[in-house]
Amino acid sequence: MSASTETAVAPPGLSAITATPMPAHRPDWERGLLGDPKLLREIAETIGGPFHLMYPERIVANIRAFGEVFTRARVHGAIYYGKKANKAECVVRACAEAGCGVDVASFDELQAAIAGGVRGADLMVTGPAKSDRLLEQATRDGALIAVDDQDELDRLSAVEGPSRVLLRVLPPGSSSRFGMTDEELDRALLLADTDSIRLHGFSFHLSGYEAAPRADLAHTLIRRCREARRLGHPMTTISIGGGFGVDYVSAQAWEEFRKGVNPRWFHGDRAPRSAYYPYHCPLPGPSMLAAILGRGDLADRLRSAGIALAIEPGRALLDHAGITVFGIQGIKTRLAHGVPYDILTANGTSLSLSEQWFDSEYLPDPVLWPQRPGNLTPTCVGGSSCLEDDMLSRRRIPLPRPATTDDLLIYPNTAGYQMDSNESSFHGLPIPPKVVLRSSPDERQFNWRLDTAPDAI
Question: Is the pTM of this model over 0.85?
Answer without folding.
Answer: yes
